[in-house]
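Annotated sample (chain length 334).
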Amino acid sequence: MSGFLGKPVWMWLGFLAIIIALLAFDLGIWHKDDKEMGVSESLWLSAFYIAFAMAFGAYIWWAYETGRLVTEDGTHAGIAYFTGFFIEKALSIDNVFVISMIFGFFAVPRKYQYRALVWGILAVIVLRGLMIALGAALVQQYSWVLYIFGAFLIATGIKMLVVPESDPDVSKNPVVRFMRKHMRVTDKLHDQKFFVRQPDPATGKVVLFATPLFLALVVINVADLIFAVDSVPAIFAITTDTFIVYTANIMAILGLRALYFALAAMVHRFQYLKYALAMILVFIGLKIFWNEMVGKLNPAISLGVTLALILGGVLYSLWKTRNDQPELRDKAAE
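Output written by the structure step:
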């Protein structure tokens, strides 16, 4: 089959088929009935997704070593995949606190949260694909765009190091205000439904209403898109191979949805991880300038530094907060 974004179409279709099968299994079998996901189930399901992502990465590594997979920029496909996967996984942890606040604002019970997150994956698959395709096109046509990516990553990392974080006010979110102004929205949830038909208070005619669950889904995906502004350039700094960038992104996000319910309960324990993430962004940004001005840095060094910073950030956070009491409660559990 003819190529698409540097790879045969069958590779893209095969990967999408795998993702759709996983989501179908997740929604149709594993979570066929709405129920609250506990920490234990969250960890087991997350372990499954991580193991699957590792197995897929092992296949990528094997395919590259045997010549069945060739990257567009000559980077080692296996090393690039795992580096991108770990960077995306670590950066996505920041999403957990924001997602928890969004669910709390819309008073979404835990038993409906996971289904909303999994449906959100469908939007992520499309939105991330569009962002990555746009980024790949820019890099291919204008190689100097990588310098912009590098400068942006360095600036973002420095900002994370020196600027204190502030809690976002969901009620003032422009997306929420726009949707409430231009859509009919119910005052309360209707189980797991995103839309319901009910009489319009003004006319008495039965019309379609969005539910708060749908608003939560939209706001979460907009937040994910904003977080992608950091993560996508970071992976492009590792490799410009579109297939590796996309698969590493999606595989990392799939597992995060399952891990959310365990992380949300202990997100306060990772408050120092942001400094490690900031240093990763600065390192990756500097790596772009090094590659372009000095020579290509050994990909194994990038993977080693990334893993060392993530592991160091996690261990230091757990040690530093070992005696702390949780200050951030998951309001959705109420």
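Annotation: The two ends are 52 Å apart (CA to CA).
Annotation: Residues 326-334 have pLDDT under 50 and may be disordered.
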